[in-house]
Amino acid sequence: MYHPEALEPIIGFLRGIGMEIDYGEKAHGGFLPGVNIHGGVIHVDPDTLLGPGDLLHEAGHMIVVPRRFWSHLGTDLQEDIEILLRDETAPDGSPDPILTMAARQGEFMSQAWSYAVVQHLNLPMDCLFFPGSYKYDQYEGTHPMLAWLEQGTHIGPLALAQAGMTGFSGMFAHVGQNSLPSFPQMSRWTLD
Asked: What's the gap between Cα 191 and its chain centre?
């Protein structure tokens, strides 16, 4: 595992914001090795986890959904969010805006949120952006996803700001003003 020393601080942080984390066999069969979600509980197997950032990233997919829906989330987060979006559409046909954002921008929001957590915990960025993470095996210098976040060109912080979790930043600083500290500072870690 890349940066195993970052696993316990990340688990402590996730539990501190109200996420359930369990160890064991249920961690297998998920989208990423060593981490899986069942009924809103994140299961992790440190022996097969490639990096603690993968656990953080999967948690990031959950936090872009209001907490009351976490128990409905499982292995296929995108499908589960799409089902929630369908089920939570108002009688007039208008979709829930937060669930719509989670369905359309969840991947980018999760990446940006994970970056903010690593910054907050003062962990090495390599625990999140390691060779093979985010489907980047071959690159020179800085991991491409990390570069986009640091350059302010990644769209995830914009979506987090639109959800009221952080302030606008980077090339999107001019898009709006919500009076929150700019990304990567977070005013809240979850959507309640």
From this structure: 12
